[in-house]
Amino acid sequence: MRGRCEYTVTYVGNSMTIPNWAKKHRKPKTEIKAIGGRFYVYEVSSVWDSERKVSRKVSGKLLGKITKEHGFVERREYQKQKIKLPVRSKEYGATELFHQLMGECVRELQELFPQEWEQIVISSYARLLHRSALKNIELHYDHSFLSELYPQASVGSKVIGTTIQVLGKKREQIRKYFKSIKNAGELILIDGTNILTNSAASLAEIGYNSTHTYKPQVNLLYMFDIKLQSPVYYRLVAGNVREVKSFKLSLKESGLSNAVIVADKGFYSKNNIQELDDNKLSYIIPLQRSSSLIDYAALLPLDKRKMSGYFTYAKRTIWYFSSEKVTLFLDEELKIAEERDYLNRIVTVPEDYSIEQFHEKQHIFGTMAIISK
Questions:
Q1: Does one domain contain both 322 and 249?
Q2: Is residue 167 located within the same domain as residue 190?
Q3: For residue 20, what are the domain limits?
Q4: Could you say which of 3, 45, 122, 285 has the lowest number of CB atoms within 10 Å?
C-alpha cells in the first residue's frame, strides 16, 4: 500500500464511532473526522517518509460534512465555484451609442406604440447597422446587447412582418410621432419617388412616373429638415394621385411651413409648374439640357462677363447665369470630361456620334439648369 491512501476515519476529541449511514458517504482520498458530535469530510493524501521508511498521512482541506438527513453536504464555497454561468459574446459599443442617440425617440415610441415599440427599435438597429433583411433581424438582436436591454422582445420575421402591417394603419400615431421631433423649421426639403410594385398593396395604383412606365406603383414622399439633416415626415400616397396634390396635402397634414419641393428631371412639365405656382409652393426642379427654357446665350461664345457670378463647390469653381426662374450652371471640369467622352465615342461608336454633332453640342457640355421659385 506504499504511496496510496484511499480513505480513512479519524476521531477527534472523543472515541466516537462513525455510524454506517455516515460511512457509506465516504469517497476515495478522503477522511471523516468526528468533531463535536458532527462528521466532517477532509481531503487526505499520503507521502513517503524517507527517514522512517513508511507512508505518512497528510490531511487536506475541508470538503464538507455528513448528516443523516442530507448525506454529504459540500461546503458553500465549492458549491458556488461549481455554478457555471453561460458565457456569450455580444456586440455592445454600437448598441450603446444607438441606444443613447435614440433615447428621446424611444420614449415617444413607448407612448405612441405601446405594443410595437420594441420591434420598431430593434428593427431600426438591425437595418441601420447591418442593412438586415427581416429574416435576419432576430439574429442581429441575439448577438447585440439589445437582447439584454429588451430580453422579452419578440422579433421573429413573422412578428416583424405583422408589426409593419399594423404600423401602416396607425397613421394618426405616426403623424403625432413626427410632430414630436424638435425640428429647426428654417427650411424643409420635400422629395418624392415612385416605387413600382406587383403586390396587392391597397395604395398600389397604375400611375405616371419619370420613366413613362404605366404600372402599379406607390408614391413615397419624405420631408427633410436641412438643419437637423434628418427626415421629419413621410407619407405613402396612391400611385394614381397627382404629385402636386400630394405635396399640398402632406404639407397641410404635417403642419410644416417654409418648405421647398425637390424633384427630378422627369417631374418637370408646364402643367406641374403651373400647379405648383397656383398652390404657392416653392420648388427646385432640374431641366433637361434640351429644354427651351434654358438660355445658352451667355455661353455663345463663352464670355464670363455675361455670367451672373460663381461659387466654389467641392474645390471646383461653378459659374452660373440667372434669367427669370431658370438658373444655368457651368462646371468647366465637368465640361472637359464630357467633351473627352464625346470625342472618344466618335471613334468607338461612329454611327451615333460625329464631329459635326460635337460642334453643335459643345456649348452645353458641363452645364446643368434648374427652374426654381
A1: no
A2: no
A3: 7-82
A4: 3
In this prediction, residue 311 carries a pLDDT of 95
Model confidence over 272-317: pLDDT tens digits?
A: 888 888 888 888 999 999 888 998 888 888 788 888 999 999 999 9
Domain boundary among 55, 82, 109: 82
Cell digits of residue 2: 506504499
Q: What is the pTM for the complete model shown?
A: 0.56
pLDDT 10s digits, 68-100: 888 888 887 766 656 566 667 889 999 899 888
Per-residue HEC secondary structure of the chain comes to CCCCCCEEEEECCCCCCCCHHHHCCCCCCEEEEEECCEEEEEEEEEEEECCCCEEEEEEEEEEEEEECCCEEEECHHHHHHHCCCCCCCCECHHHHHHHHHCHHHHHHHHHHCCCCHHHHHHHHHHHHHHCCCHHHHHHHHHCECHHHHCCCCCCCHHHHHHHHHHHHCCHHHHHHHHHCCCCCCCCEEEEEEEEECCCCCCCCEEECCCCCCCEEEEEEEEEEECCCCEEEEEEEEECCCCHHHHHHHHHHHHCCCCEEEECCHHHCCHHHHHHHHHCCCEEEEEECCCCCCCCHHHECCECHHHCCEEEEECCEEEEEEEECCEEEEEEHHHHHHHHHHHHHHHHHCCCCCCHHHHHHHHHHCCEEEEEEC
**For the chain, how many residues are written?**
373
Please indicate, yes or no, if residue 139 is contained in any of the structural domains.
Answer: yes
Among 144, 175, 206, which residue terminates a domain?
175
pLDDT tens sequence across 313-330: 999 999 999 988 999 999
pLDDT tens-place string over residues 180-215: 876 666 677 777 777 787 777 667 777 666 666 677
Nearest CA to 287 among 226, 188, 349, 364? 364
215 shares its domain with 192: yes
pLDDT for 59 beyond 60: yes
Statement to judge: residues 215 and 136 lie in one domain: no
